[in-house]
Amino acid sequence: MGVFDATETGLRAATNKTPIEWSRALALGLSLWYEWAILAWVLARLARCFPWSSDSACIGFWSICLLGAIFAVAKLCMDYPVIELSTVPSRG
């Protein structure tokens, strides 16, 4: 997924006449998808703590909503430094 994302980023940048180096696009794509992998692992661990059963469906629903909001904010917080680092022009 990271390679596909990097290819799409490179092609989009080229059509907008703001080319990006392939290595930067690849680093960005892989980094962003590795973040999803980390969050998915954490979510799988947390899913065991909040089982979805008929007895606790309401609690399970609201805990999933809360975790979804927390994960959305966490992903945004993880994305910001990665995107900033990948878009800073290289010096050298």
What do you see in this structure?
With 92 residues, the protein is mainly alpha-helical. It has one domain. Helices cover 77% and strands 0% of the residues. It has 3 helices and no strands. Helix 1 crosses helix 2.
SS field, number of helical segments:
3
Q: Could you name the ranges where pLDDT drops below 50 across 5 or more consecutive residues?
A: none
- Gyration radius (Cα, Å) is 18 Å
Proportion of helical residues = over 70%
Mean pLDDT: 82
The multimeric state of the shown protein is: single chain
User: In sequence order, what are the helices and strands, one letter per element?
Assistant: HHH
| Structural classification | mainly alpha
The strand count comes to 0
